Amino acid sequence: MDELKPCPFCGGEAEFDGLVGTQIGISCCASMGFQKSDYMTMEERQTWNPKTYKYSDEAEAKVRAIAIKYWNKRNPNPQ
Q1: What's the CA gap between 60 and 9, in Å, rounded?
Q2: What is the CA 46 to chain-centroid distance, rounded?
Q3: pLDDT per residue over 18-74, tens digit each?
Q4: Considering Cα of 62, then 67, then 72, then 76, what sign does the dihedral take?
């Protein structure tokens, strides 16, 4: 899987926030956030597990890959 590029402003190492839950974020001195379900099919949304606060491993990996793609492209509007 691709890795995150350094922060476009400070050059620091960006990190993921919110790997558990319904949102995922990438932050350093700048940030970018995503509502996970916005990038899932209806079937993937139905994999939500209230005990683990996560979607299926496949759905989580898909959203993580999308977040990396948009962070690395420096795209302010991922939709």
Answers
A1: 27
A2: 18
A3: 778 999 999 988 888 999 999 999 999 999 999 999 999 999 999 999 999 989 887
A4: positive
Structure tokens at 53: 């606060």
DSSP annotation of 39: G
**Separate counts of helices (H) and strands (E) for the chain:** 2, 3
* Residue 59 domain flag: yes
Query: What pTM was computed for the model?
Result: 0.82
Amino acid at 60: E
Residue range(s) defining the domain that contains residue 52? 15-73
Place of tokens 């209230």: 50
DSSP 50: T
